[in-house]
Known about the structure:
Blueprint: E1 5-8, E2 11-14, H1 18-28, E3 35-38, H2 42-50, H3 52-59, E4 63-64, H4 69-78, H5 88-102, E5 105-110, H6 115-126, E6 131-136, H7 145-155, E7 159-163, H8 168-176, E8 184-187, H9 191-196, H10 204-208, H11 212-219, H12 224-227, H13 229-239
Parallel strand pairs: 3-4, 3-8, 5-6, 5-7, 7-8
Antiparallel strand pairs: 1-2
Helix pairs in contact: 2-3, 2-13, 4-13
Amino acid sequence: xxxxxxxxxxxxxxKVTMNEAFNVFLNLxxxxxxxxxxxxxxxxxxxAQEDKELKTILAKGDLVIPDGIGLIYASxxxxxxxxxxxxxxxxxxxxxxxxxxxxxxxxxxxGKPGVAERAAExxxxxxxxxxIKGTQDGYFSEEDDLKIIDGINDAxxxxxxxxxxxxxxxKWISKHKKILNVKVAMGVGGSVDIWAGTAKRAPKxxxxxxxxxxxxxxxxxxxxxxxxxxxxxxxKVLIDKEFSK
Length: 245
């Protein structure tokens, strides 16, 4: 399926709305090999400026949605055509609703010990028709990869949610997608923490004003060094003549 895409500082982003992205997902779930979904925001785009491996992985993603509001502002300024932010946490929820209706199965990989299990319990409470095929925390070494993949493949979930944080989750999915026996592997970052109740999403007031990033900073000041990527990104948006190439 051909998708329109834009380049933001050289990083591929598919030109999709929430509904369009979901329609793409409906195609991906019917493929015979593992399809990848990535959710870059401003921080990830900036990280890809120095991390060429990450930029290449995003370029090969089957669905790369515009998670960060900064990407939408940049698109508007440069007339690239991104219409709306597609938050990863909301897209994951849309997929879970689909799984509940169709009785599809999921596997959750990542988070601190116990977080994936709690997330699975809360997901089942909300969506009782989903089949949870397994969970695994993110505290494992590279030597454990094949053993974990064997466990995932034996469980044969339709969807693998990987919550190892960026860029680790993107690199893990890319490295192993050829041997993963799943229909879709999606990098979901902190969405699993939200489902587990160990983190909270911003109140609707902040979301409506596109200030979710600011709420995260207020509630977790240690993120301030990561947030430096935002002003750096905006400076590049304003002055970089090669911005959309």
